Amino acid sequence: MMAKQIMGLWQFECDAVLTRSLFAAAAEVGARCDCAPCRNFRALGPHAFSAPARAILEALGIDPTQASELYPTGVSQAGIVPHAGFFHFVGGSLEGDRESSTEADGFRYFITTHAARVSKTFAPHPVLQLEFETSLPWVLDEPCL
Ligand SMILES: [Zn+2]
User: Fold this and answer.
1) Which of 1, 37, 87, 99 has the maximum number of C-beta atoms within 10 A of its C-beta?
2) Distance CA 78, CA 99 (A)
């Protein structure tokens, strides 16, 4: 059931219960890419994001291990690599700032109706996209690029 949600600079409706069940039913919502950044992200598992970032994702029903898109945006510094990417969740009726992002403990994000690369799992439903930028630990023994 859609419920009103106020988060960051946005107000929207979302169905966290349905989103959670879609993530659970689909073994692989995220791109199962074999590149080093995706393998590093999978190695991090649920610990990729800080607790405040996980709280944001979990409030929307998003499985934090299943990003639809993920890529490094900069150079590694002391084992930390800046990344960007996005998740999808069931939602609509988005209102609020369309230009800005907001930040929680190093997790910068915004919510948009412009959804790209929506998986088959979500395709039958109205979706919103949460785009993020954050730094991730690099745990592989190989370089990120
Ligand atoms: Zn990849």
Assistant:
1) 87
2) 32
